[in-house]
UniProtKB/TrEMBL annotation:
Residues 19-40 are annotated as: Disordered. This is N2227-domain-containing protein. Gene3D superfamilies: Vaccinia Virus protein VP39. Keywords: Signal. The keyword Signal applies. Residues 28-40 have a biased composition (Low complexity). It comes from Trichodelitschia bisporula. GO terms for molecular function: S-adenosylmethionine-dependent methyltransferase activity. PANTHER family: CARNOSINE N-METHYLTRANSFERASE, PTHR12303:SF13. Pfam families: CARME. InterPro entries: CARME (IPR012901), SAM-dependent_MTases_sf (IPR029063). It comes from the Eukaryota.
Amino acid sequence: MRLSALLLLPLSLALASASQEPLVNSQPTDEPTVEPAAEPTPKNAYLASTELFPPGPEVAHLTTGSTLDIEPPLSPRHEKAKAQLLDSLIRTPQNWARSHPRYRLLEVLHGLRRHEYRYVEQLREWGEAYQTLPEAQRELIRASTTYHTNFDLIRNLWPKNGALATNILEHALEYYEMDPAELASYIETAEAQRSWDYQPSITDALNHLVRDWTADGAHEREPTYAPILATIKDLLAKHPADAGTFKVLVPGAGLGRLAHEIAALDPRIEVTANEYSAYMNTCYRYVTTLRTPSSTSWHPYINWWSHQPSLAETTRAVHMPDVSINSSSVLWIEGDFLREFASEEGAYHAIVSLFFIDTAKSSLDYLDAFSRLLVPGGSWLNLGPLLYGSSPKLQLNLNDLLAVSEAMGFAFQPTPEEFGPLTLPHRTARARELGYLYNARSMRRNTYQAQFWVARKESRTYTPFPPPEAEPYNFAPGSHF
Ligand SMILES: C[S@@+](CC[C@H](N)C(=O)[O-])C[C@H]1O[C@@H](n2cnc3c(N)ncnc32)[C@H](O)[C@@H]1O
């Protein structure tokens, strides 16, 4: 069945064919962590008011601890950034294009709206595939496992994930001041005109929620943040007491945990973070409304059955946030790093690129921007791989990248041995084996020999580059994993 057809069916009917075998009463050998269903609440008026959306199950909202009502007041610089952001979203007949930030936002909201249905459809297909096994095989599976009951079990968990997507969507409508009717009209047109499937990017962003804001992400965060936070502390200690705030910029900030960790180090630190992806930005805007630890939960591992040691692991609920978040401690600038900061010069004492420099078409554009944005003597901290994606124009190896950086006026600083072994004997880059977006309890490991270095801006004497390309670079979410 095509997805468009599925969307016309109530969810309960859509999966009716997924597990035609009778449910067995025997206890699963491996008890899944199914939480009690949340109280159903009526769908939002706009969802009910349009025939576009099928009358699926009531969506339970994950409101426990979501305290939008006590959002702290915005500082003047946050207010200015928000006004600029809303301005950038204004559409006119002249500027309307797929690269317009409002268009990209609508795509994300469309994807969030369809998140649950898309994966319920996938589950239905898996159920149908199972039914095509020879009866003798299914008989053995039934007799020795609970596999045949997993479809219904997991189908019943999907409303919780759907509710998370809905909450992110609803917060985005409010935050970006978008009329729900505009979204409904966009979805209607998009679904009538072309095929659509934003789920890889939605899932990618939700997986970043695990990486950044749950206890499950600690195995990635701790070794990743350790050298960065230690270096920032060190630089702060050398920052003269009368020199005002110590300004740090984190481009390509993902879902922002590192930026918040840096801000939490010391009140003298002022952090600005930047992120291009509207998938990341809508999730970030939502997660920073959650003030109470563990106030929200979902089941991030139910959509991928590979590498799972047990049903309990596949269905395990993950809670977020793992800490109380202060949204006002970081200034979050949405948009292309090369464009958003083009008019600033000598504004930051440190720039931290985490899993970022390889997202550029030409890393030299990023290096040039770092050099312009840093104060003389400012520091560039890097940690990440060189995984070039998105049709790069330049794919320098580590040695060449460091050589070009030196030619652009960066002086590489010695760093402690505890941060990792030197990758090249004559260079100061240190290798750290770091995980990225994997469940540590699964049977899969996704790691990089990420490179850590600290470089000081000494001079900026090379021939100026022409301005970078007008369009934001074509970042393909998921290109790192
Ligand atoms: C591999 S992810 C790393 C995210 C985050 N630093 C982390 O470690 O979890 C790279 C991030 O850079 C962002 N990005 C790519 N190109 C960008 C650009 N031109 N301006 C701002 N952000 C960009 C992507 O959207 C993505 O979130």
